[in-house]
Design goal:
disordered N terminus, 4 strands, 305 residues, two-stranded antiparallel ribbon
Length: 305
């Protein structure tokens, strides 16, 4: 039993200081196969994780079973509240869900009704993902959620429809890039609006041992900015390069004969951060220095996904 009690289930399985270690971690928690598991199986994983944290686990439990339970826990339960997240908002659903929506946005870009419908679907999906993966230490009201959703959706639709009409006489490839412009513009609105409480009230910051030091608005702004940039960057390869590929493929006769497969074809082709104490608000920085001196040089916070 001593060996089981010594097992730290929250310790990184891979070295997080290396690129490959971080890559393995994110591949692990975004494994789309986990969305196929039942709630009861996920709850079993949560129970095992909690028992390991308490210093014990069922007799005969292997190390691999504990790691798999942690994988399921990280993929399906919110890191702040421990609550099971909704199915669509989980990071493990982003590969199949995001692929399908992105593929159809890129395929149905020619008519205004199609643009409106798929941009609305995408922003509804994004709003749910943003809310699900928010920093739960900063609660958001139903009114704020509604305003964020309407604002982001309106921004995406205005950008997409406006550019769609503007590019009627532009080269065909330019029109294919309209969905990316709309997605990028909406992300710049959707995420900050959905997480506005974090900007207004700050988010919890801790030392490297997890001891809470206070709340920081600057940490919130930094975390949300990084999320916006990463969302736009992740969308760029598929939504910029794929249209170029499709533009060339559609010139071939065999592609012209299978237009009904263009949509599915496009579908197929398609955390914790740190911050220096010196970058915090003056009052919080002074509070930390007065209590800990120069022992605490960095604070840590959950930036959300």
């Amino acid at each position: 039993m001593a060996a089981l009690k010594a097992f730290d289930i929250d310790a990184p399985r891979w070295d997080q200081s290396t690129f490959m270690g971080r890559l393995k971690y994110f591949f692990n928690i975004t494994d789309f196969r986990t969305v196929l598991l039942s709630d009861s199986r996920l709850d079993e994983a949560k129970a095992l994780v909690e028992s390991c944290r308490a210093g014990s686990s069922p007799p005969g439990t292997t190390e691999e079973q504990r790691y798999y339970a942690k994988k399921l826990y990280d993929s399906a339960f919110h890191p702040d509240t421990g609550d099971r997240m909704n199915f669509i908002g989980r990071m493990s659903f982003q590969v199949p869900g995001g692929m399908a929506i992105t593929g159809f946005m890129l395929q149905f870009y020619r008519t205004v009704p199609a643009v409106v419908f798929w941009q609305w679907v995408n922003q509804s999906f994004n709003a749910l993902v943003n809310y699900t993966n928010r920093n739960a230490a900063s609660p958001v009201t139903q009114k704020q959620i509604g305003i964020a959703y309407v604002t982001a959706t309106s921004t995406a639709l205005a950008t997409a429809v406006g550019l769609n009409l503007y590019t009627k006489k532009a080269p065909p490839l330019v029109a294919r890039w309209v969905p990316f412009a709309a997605v990028a513009a909406a992300n710049c609105v959707n995420i900050p609006m959905m997480r506005q409480q974090e900007i207004l009230n700050g988010i919890s910051v801790t030392d490297e041992d997890g001891n809470k030091l206070g709340h920081s608005r600057k940490a919130a702004v930094k975390g949300i900015t990084q999320v916006v940039v990463s969302r736009v960057t992740m969308a760029a390869p598929g939504m910029i390069i794929l249209p170029i590929i499709m533009q060339r493929l559609e010139k071939y006769r065999f592609m012209q004969k299978i237009t009904f497969l263009h949509g599915p074809l496009q579908v197929m082709m398609v955390g914790v951060f740190s911050m220096a104490v010196s970058k915090l608000e003056p009052e919080l920085r002074e509070s930390i220095v007065s209590q800990y001196g120069d022992r605490v040089r960095f604070v840590y916070f959950n930036k959300g996904l």
